[in-house]
């Protein structure tokens, strides 16, 4: 009996970044390393340097677009992530939540093609 494994958020994000860089090689995308297991000393140093819980995972500066990655199933936004999304949207950025790489690709493509009437799904801050 085989068990279908749900890909990790790391895997999904890695696949999205690979696809994005191949699709738009002249547009920069970068990760915000806010998550992950750290020693208390490292966590303290990073907090002092400005790391803030809840900041979305990826940023595309040219498009003013933030991307929060979640697993296909089971990934939910934390209270901090919701607050950051609300703040970023209030100052003019767009924030999307990709439930897996394929969903994120679809939303990013919709964002890129927005002039053709395709509407990008905005984050639901009450979910």
Keywords:
127 residues, alpha+beta, Trna Endonuclease, Chain: A, domain 1, four-stranded mixed sheet, globular, disordered C terminus
Structure write-up:
With 127 residues, this protein is an alpha+beta fold. It has one domain: Trna Endonuclease, Chain: A, domain 1 (3-Layer(aba) Sandwich), CATH 3.40.1350.10. Helices cover 39% and strands 13% of the residues. It has helices at residues 9-23, 40-49, 79-90, 101-112; strands at residues 30-31, 58-60, 65-70, 94-99. It has a four-stranded mixed beta sheet, with helices on both faces. Helix 1 (9-23) runs parallel beside helix 4. The chain is globular and about 45 Å long.
CATH class division: Alpha Beta
Structural class: alpha+beta
Mean pLDDT: 85
Shape: globular
Could you spell the SSE succession in H and E letters?
HEHEEHEH
Residue share in helix: 25-40%
- CATH architecture field: 3-Layer(aba) Sandwich
Span between termini: 35 Å
Q: Quick summary of this structure?
A:
By secondary structure, the protein is an alpha+beta fold. The protein is 39% helix and 13% strand. Helix 1 packs parallel to helix 4 (101-112).
Chain-wise SSE layout:
Blueprint: H1 9-23, E1 30-31, H2 40-49, E2 58-60, E3 65-70, H3 79-90, E4 94-99, H4 101-112
Parallel strand pairs: 3-4
Antiparallel strand pairs: 1-2, 2-3
Helix pairs in contact: 1-4
């Amino acid at each position: 009996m085989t068990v279908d494994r749900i890909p990790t958020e790391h895997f999904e994000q890695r696949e999205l970044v690979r696809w994005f860089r191949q699709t738009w090689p002249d547009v920069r995308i970068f990760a915000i390393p806010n998550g992950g297991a750290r020693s208390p000393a490292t966590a303290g140093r990073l907090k002092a340097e400005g790391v803030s819980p809840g900041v979305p995972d990826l940023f595309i500066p040219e498009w003013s677009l933030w991307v929060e990655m979640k697993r296909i199933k089971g990934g939910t936004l934390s209270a901090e992530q919701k607050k950051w999304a609300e703040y970023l949207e209030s100052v003019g950025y767009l924030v999307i939540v990709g439930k897996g790489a394929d969903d994120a690709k679809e939303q990013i493509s919709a964002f890129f093609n927005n002039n053709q009437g395709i509407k990008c799904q905005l984050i639901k801050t009450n979910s």
